[in-house]
Amino acid sequence: MYNFSAGPAQLPLPVLEQAAAELTDWQGSGMSVLEVSHRGKDFVACAADAESAFRRVANVPSNYRILFLAGGATGQFSAIPMNLAARGATAAYLNTGQWSKKAIKEAGRQGVDVRVVADESASAYTTTPEPGSFTVPVDAAYLHYTPNETIGGVEFPYIPDAGDVPLVADFSSTYLSRPIDVERFGVIYGGAQKNLGPAGLAIVVVREDLLGRAREDVPAIWDWKVMAEADSMLNTPPTFSIYLLGLILHWIESTGGLEAMGERNCAKAERLYAAIDASDFYNNPVQARSRSWMNIPFTLADPALDADFLAGADAVGLTNLKGHRSVGGMRASIYNAMPADGVTALIDYMTEFERTRA
Question: What does the entry give for GO biological process (predicted)?
């Protein structure tokens, strides 16, 4: 079965097999990792190993802290303004899709003066703003953007220039899919359920000089400085997600690191886009330079065939291809764990379906 779900997504088979083998007896403890105390020395070492592996894999500089938090990326939509901006302060946002819109809405709920400096809604969120086409207010507490919009399959082909304003990015769908220049950012955050494990964990990478700016009334659980000082264990963290994150990070290292991962992901996306573009039966609506490597939406020439396409795909082991309800059509999410063979199988099925139905 090839799982093209946008999240929770397909996980690497070697990682699942290792987790299954260790599930009832972790490190000879006679207990599952699901059962051990997060305060015990074995799990503290497990979390420290996951953090160290993340720092190595993503090349995170020493002046950044890595936080393992609950609440997913959605929780951080509120935590970001609470940690970086006083009520009434200006915060700049780029609006490029559904997740940008949600982040903007939550910032407004936190009393921030939201300035949308680029808005791609006029294109039905099929484009990204041209570099240099927007101006970031110099008094902005931060500039927020979503490098990859999971729902629309739109991805920035560049890192926006925020000047001296801290750049904040929701990397949920692109985390560790390729090398990251962490020093370009003040804060990187995202949910783990795409490339880094099961749902329930958010990973926040924050530059140390941005810690300690939280409002006085921010709950401790959302205060990045408090969580950093507690090594992300102010409360019971999502232990199983952290354990699996560690396994996945070691898997990434064993398969060549982010340089090799980026090459594989680029090749997978190029092959699928080439198949779509070569056909009059399928169409991708996204501006060519803004196409996502991770989430590839496509429509059929006749939407009446959508149900047959999905049923036939399921029958041959290609699942979760239905597009988001706000977009329609199909969507193939081809995260790190999707092998090249899965993309080949999808292209072969699309070719045969077109041959018999066009």
Answer: L-serine biosynthetic process; pyridoxine biosynthetic process
